[in-house]
Amino acid sequence: MDSLLDEIPEDVGSTIVIAVKSENAPASPVNGQQSQKRPVYDPAIAYVLEFCTVLALRDTDTVELFGKRVVDALQAVLRDVGSYHPILVARATFYLFRLLQFSYVRLPTATNHAV
pTM (2 decimals)? Predict the structure, then answer.
């Protein structure tokens, strides 16, 4: 699991780009051109996140062992949505909800053991 999660680049969201405007360039986009570049979809990141989620959701033991690390990786994507493609953000959100649902439905809670 650690090897898979290490494949996710940590520097995607931390890249700082400084744009310098020249004196001759128009201030606004011309003819409907977009001035911002959208993040490129990287299927490798989506694959790693999905594979880690599937492995973690095998049973309650694997959720307890790997769930936190997978949730941390998914939350890292969701904390910096501007750096990732919208499809990857949507998939990360779905995987996070799946882990949350599984842990809510299947894992015993502390209140059940206290009774």
Answer: 0.69
> What is the pLDDT averaged over residues 3-26?
60
Gyration radius from the chain CA atoms: 19
| Nearest partner of 5 among 90, 80, 70, judged by Cα | 70
Dihedral of the CA atoms 29, 39, 12, 73 (nearest 10)?
A: 140
**Spatial distance between the Cα atoms of 98 and 108, rounded to a whole number of angstroms:** 17
* Spatial separation of the C-alpha atoms in residues 102 and 63, rounded to whole Å: 8
pLDDT in tens, 30-48: 565 555 678 888 899 999 9
Q: Which amino acid is at 29?
A: P
Task: Write the CA distances from 12 to 40, 55, 68, 105, integer angstroms.
Answer: 11, 24, 21, 34
Distance CA 87, CA 46 (A): 9
> How many angstroms separate the Cα of 104 from the Cα of each of 32, 34, 41, 86, 98?
47, 43, 31, 27, 10
Q: What does the pLDDT read at residue 58? A: 93
Q: Which of 52, 88, 91, 54 is nearest to 70 (CA)?
A: 52
